[in-house]
Amino acid sequence: MTLAAFTITVPVAGCKRIPDDDANRPATARAYPPASRPVSDLAGNEWSTETARDKRGEAEEIMKAAGLAHGMTVADIGAGEGYYTVRLAERVGEDGRVLAQDIDEDAIKRLADRVARDELDNVSIKLGAPDDPRLPKDSFDRIFLVHMYHEVREPYAFLSRLRPSIRRDQDGASYDGGEVIVVDVDRPFVQHGIPPKQLFCEFEAVGYQLIGYMERPELGGYFARFRPVGKAPLPGKIKPCEMEK
Questions:
Q1: Is the dihedral angle over the CA atoms 48, 52, 56, 62 positive or is it negative?
Q2: What's the CA gap between 44 and 241, in Å, rounded?
Q3: Are 67 and 41 in contact (CB under 8 A)?
Q4: If 0-12 CB within 10 Å is exposed, 13-18 middle and 19+ buried, where does residue 191 land?
Q5: How many CB atoms lie within 10 A of CB 16?
Q6: Which of 20, 51, 125, 143 is 20 to 30 A removed from 62 (C-alpha atoms)?
Q7: β-strands 15-17, 38-40 pairing
Q8: How far apart are CA 29 and CA 22, in angstroms?
Q9: What is the pLDDT of residues 49-63, one digit of tens each?
């Protein structure tokens, strides 16, 4: 499979480094290591016009590469205005389910209006937290994190709390079916991206395995697939990733 070319239009904004002082972190995240890298400021919920994205075949290629099929249950984290939500809903069909989540209450309200207007009966909407996606356990065949992971302020808490929501196989012993799909940009945090090596390290630190990766260097975009393996490490046992010099 190949990932179709996709371009991204984003404003250049500053980054904020999370301090080690726990007083500046959510109480719910303090058991986990703090981010050891800058975190991009929220850049808004629109990367480009939906028409332009569709002309590039962005969503179609990403859903194909993710192995998305009719009847699956998926989550769209950082759903924003719903570009992926509505297309995921169409792909999984009436026998599938989509949970659209965001931490922006205004975006959630606008998305709810869109879902109602388009009569998307297979879509549910949920407000998340910066350090917790608040997803139901053992529920999702695919979880999409599209152009949003570089904005996650508590990556180790967030990814740890994401793990239980991924669907296990029938005997409950492994995650052979469920995957996390990440689409992001290989560029500095200040330019709203995250280097792939940093992404891989953070996922590995909380017990995920990289099972697929594709890139288009000339555009700076990449696609990665992860699956949980083994037991999740306890918060105090997570070794944070160091920034490359």
A1: positive
A2: 27
A3: no
A4: middle
A5: 13
A6: 125
A7: antiparallel
A8: 9
A9: 788 787 888 899 899
d(CA 39, CA 13): 11
Alpha carbon 99 to its chain's center: 13
Between 3-12, 28-37, 145-154, the lowest mean confidence (pLDDT) is in: 3-12
* Distance separating alpha carbons of residues 87 and 105, to the nearest angstrom: 22
Closest CA to 33 of 241, 244, 176: 241
Strands annotated E in 30-152? 38-40, 73-77, 97-102, 123-127, 142-146
Give, for 159, the enclosing helix (H) or strand (E): helix 155-162
**Which residues touch 223 (CB under 8 Å, ≥6 apart)?**
3, 62, 65, 181, 182, 183, 212, 213, 214, 215
Indicate the burial class of 232 (C-beta count within 10 angstroms; 0-12, 13-18, 19 or more): middle
* Ranges assigned E (strand) in the chain: 15-17, 38-40, 73-77, 97-102, 123-127, 142-146, 179-185, 208-216, 221-228
- For the segment 144-197, what is each residue's pLDDT rounded down to a tens digit? 999 999 999 999 999 999 999 999 876 665 666 899 999 999 988 888 899 999
Compute the distance between CA of residue 81 and CA of residue 172 in angstroms, rounded to an integer. 34
53/40 Cα distance (integer angstroms): 23
Question: CA-to-CA distance for 143 and 130, rounded, in angstroms?
Answer: 16
